[in-house]
Amino acid sequence: MSVIGRQVALLRGINVGKAKRVAMADLRALVAELGFGDVRTLLNSGNVVYTAPDTAPEDAAARMEEALRARTAVSSRITVLTAAEVAEALDDNPLGGEEDASRFLVAVLRDPADIARLAPMTKEDWGGDAFALGRRVAYLWCRGGILESRLPAALQRALGDAATTRNLATMQKLRALAESPL
């Protein structure tokens, strides 16, 4: 069930270590001041769910990036998905991963056309890990854990900051929040 106008903003690289610190209350206020409604955050890692029925996701991302930089001096690439795109990413997952969702990453591409740059990775042998592509996301199953896997580093080399990752558990929570009634 997708709620009309609901979007999910994924901020890349904030609140990781001591750099790029942004309080979630400040982030909620910033997004609300841009005119978006029903603003909620999830965790402390830059996940925002809000309502913006008349704003294209790429426009919302650009506005948020500019406002964040102006207000906090923090630069972060922001990728925005519709609630339907979040649901599609989870529903189309070909790898499973629910048994240990913390070892499963969903890499959301800022530009869906970049999926072509990842196609060669589907032909590589990743040992016990697995890699697959969706329409706008890549799926990374890191059997031995994310820090032990070669997949995140390979994704970083291929796309740089043109993608942001969330573990499967976080994506499931974002979906639930995006689909929840106001």
Describe this protein's structure.
The chain is an alpha+beta fold. 33% of the residues lie in helices and 23% in strands. The protein is built from six helices and eight strands. The protein has helices at residues 24-33, 57-72, 83-91, 115-118, 151-159, 168-179; strands at 6-11, 37-42, 47-51, 78-82, 104-109, 130-133, 137-141, 163-167. The strands form two sheets. A four-stranded antiparallel sheet has the order 2-3-1-4, with helices on both faces. It has a four-stranded antiparallel sheet with strand order 6-7-5-8. Helix 3 (83-91) crosses helix 6 (168-179). The longest helix has 16 residues, at 57-72. The mean pLDDT is 91.
- Main sheet overview: 4 strands, antiparallel
Question: CATH first level of the largest domain: which class?
Answer: Alpha Beta
Straight-line N-to-C gap: 14 Å
Radius of gyration: 16 Å
> What's the rounded overall pLDDT mean?
91
The CATH architecture category of the largest domain equals: 2-Layer Sandwich
Number of helical runs?
Answer: 6
Give the helix/strand class. Answer: alpha+beta
Approximate shape: globular
Query: Spans of 5+ residues with little confidence (pLDDT < 50)?
Result: none
- The tally of structural domains comes to 2
Determine the strand fraction and express it as a percent band.
Answer: 15-25%
Order of helices and strands: EHEEHEHEHEEHEH
Helix content: 25-40%
Spatial strand sequence of the major β-sheet: 2-3-1-4
Write down how many β-strands occur, each being a DSSP E stretch of 2 or more residues.
8
- CATH-assigned fold name of the largest domain: Alpha-Beta Plaits
